[in-house]
Design goal:
Layout: H1 3-75, H2 79-86, H3 90-171
Helix pairs in contact: 1-3, 2-3
């Protein structure tokens, strides 16, 4: 092996080490992007699930509020006034007023719950949008990392091919010139002896 080939092989080993370091760095970035993608997918799934639950809860509450509003309309307006007008005694009026107040408090609680769950629903929708955006960014990062890895692997493969060709050329013997006097009888003369002419 010539000194030039040894120096070239040393340089190639150094370049290979540098390429491996770069490949390791890109691989770490790849793994980080995959982890971010998984986290954003989990967040999106959780937000979708919570949105479905909130929408179902709100639909149930809305049906209950609609039922109560219809009952109040049919009863003719204010439950407190109705309780006073239809009472047979003061005790009966007090009982009916307490019941009407409890119903009104229940309606107020339902209305508060609707407000809270509507706000949470809006927050969950924002969370979902953020998760979907993070998911898209993580996918783009993964694609960029994949391109970088493929480019680095291509560069390394090309360099390995060059080195293998150089090494093969170094190892192969140089062809010797034919030695013979041209009469076909000497070593290196093809075809062996020639018939007399």
């Amino acid at each position: 092996m010539s000194a030039d080939t040894a120096a070239e092989l040393g340089l190639a080993e150094q370049q290979l080490d540098e390429a491996q370091t770069e490949l390791d760095r890109v691989n770490q970035l790849w793994q980080a992007a995959e982890a971010q993608l998984a986290r954003s997918q989990d967040a999106a799934r959780a937000a979708r699930s919570r949105i479905e639950t909130l929408q179902a809860d709100l639909a149930t509450i809305q049906r209950e509020l609609d039922r109560r509003a219809a009952a109040l309309f049919i009863a003719g307006g204010s439950p407190q006034a109705l309780a006073l007008l239809t009472s047979e005694s003061v005790t009966d009026a007090v009982d009916r007023m307490e019941f009407a107040s409890a119903v009104a408090a229940g309606d107020s609680d339902l209305a508060t719950r609707v407000s809270v769950e509507t706000q949470e629903l809006a927050w969950q929708r924002e969370r979902l949008a953020d998760a979907v955006s993070a998911q898209a960014a993580a996918s783009e990062d993964l694609e960029a990392q994949q391109r970088a890895v493929q480019a680095e692997l291509g560069r390394i493969a090309s360099r390995v091919d060059e080195l293998e060709a150089t090494l093969a050329a170094e190892r192969s013997p140089t062809p010797a010139a034919p030695s013979g006097n041209g009469d076909g009888n000497g070593p290196g003369d093809p075809g062996g002896p020639r018939p007399p002419v």
